[in-house]
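Students often ask what a holo structure prediction actually looks like on paper. The answer is less mysterious than it sounds. You provide the chain, you provide the ligand, and the output is a string of discrete structure tokens encoding the 3D arrangement of the protein together with flavin mononucleotide.
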Amino acid sequence: MDGIKIYYFSGTGNCLWTARRIAEELGEERTAATDGMTDNTTEATDNITEADDNTTSQVPKSVELVAITAELIDARPAVQCDVCVLVFPSYAYGLPTLVRRFLKNSTFKVNYFAAVSTCGSHTGGSFTSIKRFLKKKKQALHFAAEVRSVENYVHIFGFTKEPKLSERLHNQAEKTAAAGELLAARTVNKVRNFRPFSALINLLFRAAKCAFPLFYKVKKTCNGCGLCYSICPSAAITMVHEKDKKARKSGVMVQKDDLKRPKFAAMKCDHCQACMQWCPKRAIKFMRVTPRSLRYHHPEVGVNELRKR
Ligand SMILES: Cc1cc2nc3c(=O)[nH]c(=O)nc-3n(C[C@H](O)[C@H](O)[C@H](O)COP(=O)(O)O)c2cc1C
Ligand code: SF4
Ligand code: SF4
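The corresponding structure tokens follow.
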């Protein structure tokens, strides 16, 4: 088995940023190790390069960076490689639903499996969950690292402002670099088998989460650009014509205008924040986040890098 694969899930870019840095760290090591190898090896890695070109130009040729999306999971991936790194945000001391589904729907044959989680404060039982999912697939988890980053759960914690914002970005960079070095050295560490408090919090959150999208409101400033649809990792948004609540023709409701606007599928939404935080018109409102509030995304990640469709 050969190759390095980094699977990431990211709403506001923190995880994509960390995944890219880790790719650079592991890619350099691999490039140095393969210097002087036969032409066959070079051709094999060239294939991976072509696939990566769509994702980001900064990723080294020897590393495959793959976004975890609803479409990827439906394809039931078979993950076979030397090194696999899973980069994800911790949600309510556990895993985003899409990451759970990725672990459930995939098969794994990996020599060295690592998990890196960005978070606002604490990852809780995230790594414990991964360990349990992988155990069912007869795959070991060799390494886990927590990378404290900017908190993006603004509904509850509000927006991180300066100077804390810069401190958090700096901390993310330092912790990512440290994790990258440990990964390059194939470090092994221990993950706890059970974290009951985290498991309870996560269970309650997942039960409540289904109702959250019902509270998303799309304001008049929406111009129907479809960005929210194209960046949603969970494929939870469809673009539809709205009905005019007042106007009817022969008793049938008529279309409001020519614009299509987002409609949220409650059961699919992971509450990742992407649509709300990236909307160029700040047209998506949810609880305390209004069109006038600030928005957050990692400053060194471009929205096009997160487009899925
Ligand atoms: C729904 C939700 C739940 C979250 N729960 C936690 C949590 O339990 N602990 C924590 O430290 N951060 C939590 N966060 C913060 C994110 O894990 C953190 O900001 C992460 O870096 C975001 O990554 P991204 O920018 O790649 O989406 C939560 C964020 C969201 C959207
Ligand atoms: S909500 Fe925002 S991102 Fe979505 S279509 Fe409207 S303007 Fe575009
Ligand atoms: S609908 Fe918005 S919050 Fe929900 S998963 Fe999609 S992008 Fe994330």
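The pocket of flavin mononucleotide (ligand 1) is lined by residues 10-15, 89-93, 118-122, 124, 149-153, 271-273 (CB under 6 Å).
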